[in-house]
Amino acid sequence: MSTAAAYAVSAPDGRFEKVTIERRELGPHDVLIDIKYAGICHSDIHTARDEWGGAKYPCVPGHEIAGLVAAVGSAVTRHRVGDRVGVGCMVDSCGECEPCVAGEEQYCIPGATMTYNTPVAPEIQADGYTMGGYSTQIVVTENFVVSIPEGIGLDVAAPLLCAGVTLFSPLRHWNAGPGKRVAIIGMGGLGHVGVKIASAMGAEVTVLSHSLSKQEDGTKFGAHHYYATSDRQTFRDLRNHFDLILNTVSADLPIDSYLKLLRLDGTLVILGLPENPLQIKPFTVAGYRRSLAGSMIGGIAQTQEMLNFCAEHGIGAEIETISADQIDGAYERVVASDVRYRFVIDTATM
Ligand code: NAP
Ligand code: ZN
């Protein structure tokens, strides 16, 4: 066992405090990573505040991890000491079920081991459940560690490990590209990376944000159009318009109104995960043969493909770097949609 500094909350309404956690001894296929940066995803907040139920405390969130390899197990072939690497939402999966064999580990049937808050044997994590990236070090099996290409800074790469692949995966799955009209609802951590990636894929990109306050940024990130959803006229102007709509909003939305913005055979993909059920009218989807779908992060191979794509297109997240003692304040600002566009913790401050 080795020890690492980490920041944990002890209750849904708790504040982050510095703790010391144990990381396991390196097995033959394990990689020890010196974490340099950890992004703050809204999912961290949902979990730390127990908004999805089942949270375990003390909770060390963090699944947008970028760092350097510090040591490798005896049988590791994919990574070497000093390599620039990343870890996203998953640290393991069964490897045998149909989705795992297809490289879609996020849909592992027995359930992937998520980077934090997943029950595991004490040999994997002494606490009995996984502890995430708000920490100075982590041990991860080599197949769940991806390479961060030269040319993307580790700080702006960190958010790509979740936000990047969560948008890249549905954009690829639903064939975003030239001639396709793609809308992104919500331009926060996920949304802003989605705008950059969709535009680099050649799609015609529209942002649907609750106000026009970030329009200039949206245009800079590659959006061709920008509308405020607080204006009812938006829903009249854009009716039957889009091939693909990606909803990244962390709060409840009147989803039926957005479904009506899809043209014939269009698809609205749920990415944002608020806790309440959605309400849709059967006529809205039956008319124009619209589809309502969902998507979870992306597989490991696709995460690597996304990082390579981002390096090739000069895409990184827009970040505000914070020290570890600023996590509580950053959470408040994310919830208030006051983030431009991802907070990233500099673990040197731990
Ligand atoms: P975020 O940075 O807080 O961005 C969410 C955006 O939603 C905000 O910037 C805001 O955009 C919009 N929004 C927030 N509250 C709103 C409200 N009351 N009404 C209308 N719009 C509102 O969060 P994030 O990190 O991007 O995560 C977004 C959601 O995706 C979370 O629920 C998270 O758990 C989920 N998530 C899902 C996956 C997956 O695999 N499916 C992966 C990661 C995260 P505007 O200001 O532009 O309106
Ligand atoms: Zn996330």
TrEMBL record:
Cofactor(s) in the UniProt record: Zn(2+)
Entry EC no(s): 1.1.1.2
UniProt KW Oxidoreductase keyword: yes
Group of enzyme by EC: oxidoreductase
Enzymatic reactions: a primary alcohol + NADP(+) = an aldehyde + NADPH + H(+)
Annotated InterPro entries: ADH-like_C (IPR013149), ADH-like_N (IPR013154), ADH_Zn_CS (IPR002328), CAD-like (IPR047109), ER (IPR020843), GroES-like_sf (IPR011032), NAD(P)-bd_dom_sf (IPR036291)
Residue stretches making up the Enoyl reductase (ER) domain: 14-345
GO MF annotation terms: alcohol dehydrogenase (NADP+) activity; zinc ion binding
Leader sequence segment: none
Keywords, in A-Z order: Metal-binding, Oxidoreductase, Zinc
PANTHER family linked to this entry: ALDEHYDE REDUCTASE
Annotated family: Belongs to the zinc-containing alcohol dehydrogenase family.
Name by which UniProt lists this protein: alcohol dehydrogenase (NADP(+))
